[in-house]
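Re: duplicated header lines in exported structure tokens

Our pipeline writes sequence and tokens for each protein into one text file. With two proteins the header for the second block appears twice in some exports. Here is an export where it did not happen, for reference. First protein block:
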Amino acid sequence: MIKLKGSIKISGDKSISHRALIFASLSTGKVKISNLLESDDVMRTLNILQELGIKIIKKNEKWIVYGNGTGGYIQPTQVLDCGNSGTSARLMMGAVASNPISCTFIGDDSLSKRSMSRLSIFLEKMGAEIKLTKKDFLPLHIKGDINLIPLEHVMQKASAQVKSAIILSALNLRGKTRIIEKRNTRDHTERLMSYLKIKFKKKILSKSSTSIELNGPYEIKPRDMIVASDPSSAAFFIVGALIIPESRITLKNIALNKSRIAFIDVLKKMGGKIRVKKNKTVSGENVGDINVTHSSLKSITIKASLSPYLIDEYPILSIAASQAKGVTVMRGLSELRHKESDRIRSIITNLSKIGYKVFSKKDDISIKGSNKIKLINQKKIKTYGDHRIAMSFVILSLIFKNKLIIDDESCISISYPDFKKHLKKLSTN
């Protein structure tokens, strides 16, 4: 059996890469971005910004963005194609909403089935004109307005993308915008704003609730940015090393944002031998090295309150659960139905096909782990075009000596083009 050994530097973080490009475009001058993730999703945001009049070039492995200020987007001459990227669609909707331009956003078949009304209701209350397909989906048309009304927004549903989109719309507004999160979400946007010296007030309202207050309009001074390496991408190799005997790996310069590494605490509770060492801070994010050694995992129950912090990691956590002793229960996964695929269905269908006992009740998943399953014939894994499902089952296939055939590995380039290259570097017989 292949084992994972050695050390690598993971590609740049996807969430931070999108935000670095957008904030650079809203600054008042030249910004260099290092370690930008050059995935399909991030390139969609980059291309959309170019369509909106932002000059972006690559020079010596760095991306250089010439910002036009918070009200500086110009009328695009064609539709803005988000491909598979929900982050591109939602964040750019927010960014253009307070510019006096009209834009049409489109996406691929998968993205065109994902809800946009959960964001559009906030932007419409402020005064943006938005026309959605079937009142919820792409293609959508948005007519921005420099005179949007700054309001208080109460977010009942947890979504870092919706929160970030409202923040981006507020940067060009005159007056106070207040966002209340009933359930806290990832805070990359706030960290980047602190690094860029954009003044805002953040208040802790309760253990799980926060308010953010902005008082615009803002002039964002240009400042070079470094994108930390992606913890969600690291998660695939971390689980791989935990479940494959004799594995031991080190992953370098990983973003250690608390809202992004909750999966490490989950894996440690399952018995995973993982050591995290913080090294430094880059562009507002703590980064460090993660050491992982093969471990005997045990089942646990993952509470629903953790779901906003594990949304991208549930697929690979389900692979860890498949190798853990006992029944692992993941609660409150409703948001998984609105990702690149219905991930609840994707996880259950594929694990069941291999022979694992997997159950779903409403928005919970139960997985009975087993290391006794042997495959005589190859099994075809259906990714549903979902990059995280594809990578998760590539990792599981290592245990089955590559008897799992992934129907579409091309979708991996959406978030991690170097995944197979990095896997090959860590793999030894």
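Second protein block, exported in the same file:
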Amino acid sequence: MHTILVVDDEPNYLIILTEILRDEGFEVFAAENGEKALEIVRSTDLDLVLTDMQMPVMGGMELLRQIKTINRNLPVIMLTAYGEVDKAVVAMQDGAFNYLTKPFKNDELIANITKAVEHYSLLRENTRLRNEVKKRYSFAEMIGKNKQMQLLFTMIEKVAPTPASVLITGESGTGKELVARAIHNYSLRDKEPFISINCAALPESLLESELFGHEKGAFTGAIALRKGRFELADRGTLFLDEIGEMALSLQAKLLRIIQERTFQRVGGTQEQKVDVRIVAATNKDLKEEVEASRFREDLYYRLNVLHVHLPPLRERIEDIPLLAEHFVSKFGRRLNKPELKISPATLRLLTTLPWVGNVRELENTIERASILCVGNTILPEDVQSEGNTAKVATPVSQSFDPDDIVPPGTPLPDMLDAIEEKALRNALVKADFVQTKAAESLGITKSLLQYKMKKFRIKKN
């Protein structure tokens, strides 16, 4: 049963409308003024508001605006006199679902109400499904329905409760610190500190002091005792980002802490005991670093007790729309653009870009587009990724005519699909369907090529 609020300052009209709607099977609330109506809107799960335009103190227009601040999706139908049609049009622009001019027929009223509540039901169902998708495909601020990401979420849940050291690998921008925080938050140390440090951000001498602390007078400028990150992370988790950049001399001291759980501050002689779980991350292949004698083999095995790998964004293309929608929502709130959305054509474009900077680049791209877009919809022309800056008047764009491939008047999304499919087929034929060779000629990765072959159902005959 759908629930309707009827608002009218004329008691007789209010009674008549209430009876009509109840006879049609609706649950009806009635309010004789805007103030009482807003109380009901705030406290009741409504499907529709039916309000008169002309009322004392708070008119229908003001009531509409107030309702939209409470629930912007709740449909409102305005009831107006014949001479107030211009105001009703303005109300439509302000978010009213429709308006009816008095006097109206009962079947016209019921038809409009039915259409409005069905529209609202569809909106609520879509919202429910989106929330369900978010819940299903999100984990500790990470988002992904890709199989690798789902396995990653399961891996984190298994790894987190253990005391073992964890090595997180993956390209820059894939979200390694998010994984480290998730491991901490799902561990038995979650109530204790999570301390992070980027090993590539500081020179060796400063990094040593940051990690282990220093005694007063240990070096010029050391005017007081200072605790390092290990002491600050005691009983908690220490995240060592870009561990592959750490100097060999510091690697030896790190190994000692892992083995003995003790260390000395810079300039000190007293042993400091700590209980710290170490989570390290790198975008390097540490095995290659070990073979090149740039990373200690014994330290590598101490850190790599449990290994978690984050796939690059180009290998999880199906996650790009989910991530983009998430970032649009995030920046819509931050920029005070609650209606901000992204067009289907833009989402399709995002799945074709290389994303060398991975999720971080995608987030930056969406933030930039959210700021630059005209209106509340992010369009393809608003997207300028770091690896795909807009180009104007190139030789190809000057000589290329899409009418040579697709009929004139073809919608842009269909046109892009047709051109892309043609280019893929041509490249594969020229490469005798050697995928690596075809991908190189197109300037894309093999995994992206395979994804697009599946999308367009391209197979070798």
